[in-house]
Structure formats: structure tokens, C-alpha cells
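Attaching the record inline, Q. Sequence:
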Amino acid sequence: MNERIFTDKLFILIVSILFLNGCSNYKDQQVVPQETLPEAIIKVMSDAYPEATDATFQAIEKEKLYEVYYKLKGNPFYAALNTKKILSVYRMHGALPDSMKQALPAKNMSGGVAEVYKEPEIQIGTDRIYSARYTWNNQAYLLSWLKYDLITPQKMMVTVEPYIKFSYNLVKDEFASLPGTVISFLEREKLRFASATVYVNDKNEKIYDVNAYTASSTYYYFTFNAAGKLTNTTYRAEAFYYNIDEYPEKIQTFVKNSWVFSSMKLKEGYKFSDPIGTGYGMIMQGTDENCRFTFDQDGNFVNMMYQTVVGP
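Structure, as predicted:
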């Protein structure tokens, strides 16, 4: 495992060396055991957070993408960065506060254990988003709260989806950062790339949510897995479904036998088909809750996202 731990004094020394002499002398300052950390990564980190201490780096993609735990003024943070910039930053809050324990899912998907409570450091707008690792039914999920008012909490939207460590955005001029199969798909379909969100899970695998549009400015969303396989879209849907009984039997059984989701109603259903990915999607609707599922072409469960509302 590629990892580097910096003490306060060592980090200050490194910043001084970078400022005076560039990155060339950094490797001379490594503590035992020797590990290779790209000089560009050190520069990005030291430029962004020169006062950071206790930084511990780990490679997601060697020489390209790293995660780092560090402290600022004694407060713990977690970030992802590449050789050009900081991609995402989270403030780590530790244990789930009592006030948020009252905001766990109370209907379906209730009874899980929440930990690793954190908050994205940069948030647009007045609404605040917090998240935690949520273990439910022996599986790890990302539990997120959209908190509308920190002083007088109102109802909050709670989202449960497969666990990811961090995410970051790609803009138009970062089109080449997408997997080759994704680029080929968009070019083949003559779709124009608008943006993408990249999610990195516990296995350091990337999932891509891509936003692209046609010549007539009709926007579509696509999800691709780490291998570049298409796993969800409504683009050129092969079929639409209005009843669970229209789905393949394996998917019908999955929904009907689920004590969690069987009481919900099908709001939207579809089948997508392409040489790089075929499968099924559905949106189930309940009272103050909904769930989105995707399945592969054989009817095997692939992914889900559950949303509900909690609070007074």
C-alpha cells in the first residue's frame, strides 16, 4: 500500500524546500520505509493547505490519483487530489451526533448503523449536505442528509446508496479523462459531453455518471461502471414498463419478495440496450419515499438508491 505519514516538522520542512528549491529534494526527506509519492502531488497539497499537519497519503491510482487524511488547526479532514488539483474535501466529524441519530431512516432500510460522519467542505447554496457510512443488512451504503436549517432543523431528505469514499466532477475540457469505452460510445452516438461525476468506492473502483446532450440539446444521463460498461440510462430505451409483471420473472421475484420494497408502486420502468450494456431500471414510489433500482440483462440486481423524508 502506497502511504506516507508526515509529522508537523517534516511537513513544514517540505513546504520550505518546495518553495525554495522545487520538488526535487522532497524524496530526501522521506521517513523509513521509503515510499514513492509524486512531487506533483506534494505540490498540489502544499499549495492548497500549507498549514496542514499529520497528512497520510494513499494511492488510488499510482502516480495519478491519491486520497489524504490530514489536520487543519487540529480538525480532521479528508481529501482526494490528482497531480493538478484538489478534487474534493470533507471535514470529518467523527461519531454521529445525537441530533442526527434522530434523522436515520425510520421506514424502510431502518435499523442500520451509521459511522464516519462527514461534511463536504465546499457546498453551493444554503442547504447543507452531511453523510455517513451506513451498514444495513451486512452491506455498506452512503447515507446522506440534505439539511435545510442547522439552527431550527426541519424535514430532511435522506438518501441511501452504495457506499463511496469520495466523488468529484469532470467538466467539458476534461472529456479525455473518461474511459475509452465511454468516449467511443458518446462519439458513436454523436452525443456532446456536458459533465460527469466520478464516484470512488472502497475498492478504489470508479463509477461514472455522465451528462451528455444531442444536437437538439436534449440531455441524457448515463451510468458506467469501472470497466466502462453501461449500467443505466433512459437514452433510446428499448421498452417502458407500467407494471411489475411486465419485467422478467427474476426481477419480479426480487421486488415482490422484498419486505422493504414490495409495498411501493412502480412509478417508472424501462429497458435499455446497447452493445456496451443492456439492463433494466425502475423507480418505485411510496409515501414520502422512493427507490431507484437497476438490473443487468439477466435480471440480476446491480444498484439502488433509496430516498425518504425524516423530521417533524
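Residues 1-34 have pLDDT under 50 and may be disordered. The first helix runs from residue 8 to 21.

More tomorrow.
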